Amino acid sequence: MRARRVRAALKGWGGVGAMAVVLALTAVFALVLPLSQSRGDGSTGTGGQGVAEGTQTKAEDCPNPQDQSLAPSGEDGATIQEIRKRGFLRVGVDQNSYRWGYRDPNSDSETSELEGFDIDLAHAIAGEILGDRDKIRFQAIPTNERIPAIQGDRVDMVVRTMTISCTRLDEVAFSSPYFETGQQVLAPKTSGIKGYDVSLANKKICSADGSTAWETLTADKKSGKLVASADIKTTVPNQLDCLVRLQLGEVDAVVTDGALAASQAAQDPTVELKGEPFTTEYYGVAMKKDADDLVRRVNQVLVDYRKNGWQQSYDKWLEPSLGESGGPPPVKYQ
Questions:
Q1: Three-state SS for 269?
Q2: How many CB atoms lie within 10 A of CB 38?
Q3: DSSP string, 6-75
Q4: Which residues pair with 257 in a beta bridge?
Q5: Nearest to 294, CA basis, from 193, 150, 109
Q6: Cβ–Cβ < 8 Å for 20, 247
Q7: Which of 4, 111, 147, 238 is the most exposed place for a label (fewest CB within 10 A)?
Q8: If you average pLDDT over residues 44-69, what whole number do you get?
Q9: What's the pTM?
Q10: Burial letters for 45-82: b for 16+ Cβ neighbours within 10 Å, e otherwise?
Q11: pLDDT tens-digit profile of 273-318?
């Protein structure tokens, strides 16, 4: 599925100057305040047989990292039983990525809930494991804290536009892919930047620390694929902070997943995607490496979700900025 050209205008959002303030404050609060949302504490009990053991493939063995997840299973294991005993699912998410995981600043509710494509998926997983879509507690996780949050057992999983990569497979386990995207350049419409090419010469580029965009920029700078005079030193904890830097004129361009860039262009009609995607990447749900039963269960949820739920969520949240969908990506298992 390729993201189509973004539709520039977004009804209901304020001017660019006001947006910069709103986004900057949102990004700060995402770093300072952990997000907790719980609507139901009951446990649905434990049970079921342990699933067959499996090991996620390491980076050196993964020519196609999106194809390295474990086969689906509806059986329970120790990780799922622990979640059921606790009574709620802990999910790391974003709260400031428009249409993926965010709070609508125009909501009439004083305590607007998180919404977006990733949030829908998280609720579907909670509904399958705990029998109630609302037995879930969200935690706002910066881009560069996604893996530490999993490894430190602060969350059971991260559902946050997280690309499956060989490097990350050494640190966490992933579900099968639920979305396909690719890195793209975001820049002001009036900019002379045309894409990921020589037009980036002498330009300041922003990316999120620990993101695949940062990894790609770094590798391409070393290999010579990226023009040598491009300045890639500007990194931020949260990807949305790059849009704020761009709005303030501190950088000339942003490199991030095209799916995220399209949503950011919808927030600010003065910026646009430049050129075509120059990588192919897949989002997955990230979990602990030893949580094989949870990985398999999430993959089972995704089997059903791709048939009933994925398209409805896409049409609601992403179609306005990405255009019509070709459906979820194909799936293979190790």
A1: coil
A2: 13
A3: PP---TT---HHHHHHHHHHHHHHHHHS-----S---------PPPPP--PPPGGG-SSGGG-SPPP---
A4: 183
A5: 150
A6: yes
A7: 111
A8: 55
A9: 0.82
A10: eeeeeebeebebbeeeebeebbbbbbebbeebbebbbe
A11: 999 999 999 999 999 999 999 999 999 999 999 999 999 999 999 9
